[in-house]
Amino acid sequence: MAVKFHHLDFVYSPRSPFQYDALHDINLEIKEHSFTAIIGHTGSGKSTLVQQINALLVPTSGFVSVGKEAVTPIKYKKYLKQLHKQIKNKKVSMGQKEKLRSIEKDLVSFEPFKKKSLRSKVGVVFQFPEYQLFADTVLKDVAFGPRNFNVSEKDALEAAKKALELVGLDESYYERSPFDLSGGEKRRVAIAGILALNPQVLVLDEPTAGLDPLNAKQMMSLFKTIHDRGTTIILVTHDMDIVLQYASDVIVMKDGRIIEETTPHALFSNIKDEYSLEVPALYAFIRRLIDKGAPLDIANIRNVDDLAKALVALRSKQ
Amino acid sequence: MKNISLGRYLPYNTIMHRLDPRVKLFGLISFMVLVFFSFGDVGANFAYYGLLLVVVFIALKLTKVKFISLFRQLKPLWFMVVFLLIINIFSFRNNDYTVLFSVFSYPIYASAVYQTFYILIRLVLMISLTMVLTSSTKPLDLTFALEWSMSPLKLINFPVHEVAMTMSLALRFIPTLLDETGRIMKAQESRGVDFTGGKISEKVRGIVSLIVPLFNSAFMRSDELANAMEARGYNPQGKRTKYRMLKFSLRDVIAFVLFSLILIGAILLLVFKVPVLGAFHDLVELIRGLF
Question: Ramachandran region of residue B34, left (φ > 0), alpha (ψ -120 to 50) or beta?
Fold first, then answer.
C-alpha cells in the first residue's frame, strides 16, 4: 500500500503563542513494499511526519493518502469546498493558488478516510513502545489491538499468538505479566501488539533505541522478515548502519523539509556536509578496499557477512 | 488538555509579579477570610460583596489576567449554581419569609435566592483571587512561601521541608506527566482505541489502557528521581541553604500592612456592627424606595 504526501504542511498549536511550524510543503511517495528509512536531526520533523500517516496528527493543509484513503485537515467534502473557495479568492497569491489547485486535482481521486480502517492498515510503533503495556498478561495485551477493531475474542487471541511467535516469544510467556519482563522482552510484546493488527504499512520510530546490540540485531531481522512478507516498512532512525543494511530508500529531512530522496548507496557515496551524517564504518572500509584496487561491487554489500562472502569469492577467482 | 489555564503562571512583570510570594500568600488567605464574612443583612452584604468585587477586579487588572480565561474557569460553576438554587428553594430554613415570586403557587423565598447568590459570588471571588496569586507567582516561589509560612510548625516536629519539597516536585512533574499522557494516548490510539467516540464499554477499556501505563511510568519516574536525589546526597533532615533568597522590600512591607489593616478593619466591622454598614443599608433602601 503506497503512502503519498501531497503538499502537506503541519503547524503545532496554530494561532497561539506556542505556534510551531513543523512540516513545510511535504511531497513524497513511499512506494508499496519498500523499506524506507527516514533520517534527520532531532527536531527535523521525522516523528511528526510519520504520525500524519495514521491520522494521529492531522495536516494543517495538504493531505496524506494511504491506498485510496486521504487524511485531510477537515472533513473531505468540506476541505474540497474550502479549497475551491480559496482558489477563487482574489486575496490569495498566485503561487499559493497553484499549490491549492494541485492539492485539489490530487484530492478528487481519493476517498475520505475512516479512522478505524486507516489504523488497521497502518501500524505505528512509537519510540519506547514498552510504555504502552497495561494488561495483566502478555497474551491479553497483544490481543488488545485486534479486540479494538471488533475482532472476536477467539480470533484476537489467535492473532496475538501468531504475533508473539513472530517476535520470538513462546507459549511460556502467554500468562506472564508484561511488567515482569526484561526491557527487550517488553519491547517485543509491545511490537507484537501492533503486529497482531496485521498492518499493511508498519511505521517504526527508532525501534532499536536503548536495546543492547544483540537484541537490536534480532529486532531488525524481525522487521526484515515482516518486510519480506510484503509489508511496507517506514523506519525512523539515527543509525546509519541500519540504513545501509536494510533500507531500500532513504529520505533525508531537515527543518521540516525533505532535502533528499535517495537510496542508501547513493546517499553514502556522495554525502553532503549539510546532512552532518556519519558514513557507516563498513561503507568507508569497502570504499578504502576499492580505492586500493579490490574490484568489489559496493551497491550489493550491505553488511559484514556480504563483505566476507565477496572477499572469499574474489580470492577464489584469483 | 487544552483548558489547563487555571494556575498557569503568566510571565509578565507587574506589581503583583514583583511582590514577595509570602506577602501574596498572606494577602490571599486574608481575602479568603474576608470573602466568607456575612453581615446578616441583605443590603449590607450586597454592598460588601460589591466592594470586594471591585478590589478583585483591580487585582486582576494589575496582574494582567485575561478575563476570558477567568470566565473559562467559571463556566463549570453554572451547573453547580443551578443545583444549589434548587436545593435552597426546597430546603429553605430561615426566619425571613419574604416571597420573591411564586411558581405554580409554590413560594420562592427571597432569602433562598440570596443564599445561592452569596455562594456563587463567594466562589467567583475565591477563584479570581487564586488566579491572581497563581498567575503572578511561579510555582516554585509559591512553595517557598508555603514552606516559610509553615516554618513555625517545625517546633512540633512537623516535616515542613519534606512537605514543601514534595509539593515542588509534584508541581514540577505536572507538565511531564501531561506529555506522557499525550504519548500513551497516541500509542493506544494507533492500537485502535477511540478516546473521543465509541461505546461506553470501549471508552472504559481505553481509559484503563491509558491509566495503567501512566501510573506505571509515574512510579518508575519517582523511583528513579529518589535514587538520583540520594545519589547526590540529599538528606531531608540536613540543613540547607537556598539559591534564591526571598527578601522583604519596602513595597512588600507596605502591602503586608495594607492587607493586615483591611483584614483587621473588616473583622472590627463585623464584630462591632459599625453603623457604616447601616448607612449602606439605608442607601440600598433609598434606592429600593425609588422604584
Answer: alpha
How many Cα atoms within 13 Å fall on the side-chain side of residue B133?
A: 24
The residue among B8, B69, B190, B215 with the most chain A CBs within 10 A of its CB, best to mutate, is B190
| Cα-only R_g, chain B | 24
Q: Do B191 and A129 touch (CB under 8 A)?
A: no
CA distance to A181, A313, B81, B98, B180, per residue, from B106 (Å): 67, 103, 20, 13, 54
Q: Which residues lie below 8 Å from residue A116, measured CB to CB, with a gap of 6+?
A: A149, B192, B194
Q: DSSP secondary structure string, A26-79? A: EEEEE-TT-EEEEEE-TTSSHHHHHHHHTTSS--SEEEEEETTEEE-SS-HHHH
Supply the pLDDT for residue B105. Answer: 73
The answer to whether B34 touches B27, Cβ cutoff 8 Å, is: no
A24 backbone dihedrals φ, ψ, rounded to 5°: -120, 120
CA proximity to B213, closest of B242, B193, B233, B240: B193
Strands A35-40 and A249-254: parallel
pTM score, two decimals? 0.76
In Å, what is the CA distance from B236 to each residue of B157, B164, B166, B240?
13, 11, 11, 9
A66: chain B residues, CB-CB within 8 Å: none
The sign of the dihedral angle between the CA atoms of A87, A93, A95, A99 is: negative
pLDDT at B7: 57
Cβ-Cβ contacts under 8 Å, B189 against chain A: 56, 119
Q: Strands A201-205 and A122-125, how do they pair? A: parallel
* Cα–Cα distance, A312 to A310 (Å, whole number): 5
pLDDT in tens, A18-49: 788 999 999 999 999 999 999 998 889 999 99
Q: How far apart are CA B69 and CA A186, in angstroms?
A: 43
Alpha-carbon gap: A262 to the closest alpha carbon of chain B (Å): 29
Q: How many CA atoms within 13 Å lie on the side-chain side of A20?
A: 9
Q: How far is the first Cα of chain A from the last one, in angstroms, to the nearest whole number? A: 46
A89 CB-near residues (< 8 Å, 6+ apart): none
- Taking phi over 0 as left and psi of -120 to 50 as alpha, with beta for the rest, B109 belongs to beta
Q: pLDDT (tens digit, 9 = 90+) per residue, A120-166? A: 999 999 998 988 999 999 999 999 999 988 889 999 999 999 999 99
Give the three-state DSSP class for B177.
helix
Pair A193, A163: CB distance under 8 Å: yes
User: What pLDDT digit, counting tens, does each position of A272-290 carry?
Assistant: 777 778 888 888 888 888 8
Inter-residue contact A107 to A67 (CB < 8 Å): no
Distance from CA of A83 to the nearest CA of B (A): 27
Radius of gyration, alpha carbons of chain A? 22
Q: Give the whole-angstrom CA distance, residue A253 versus residue A75.
A: 29
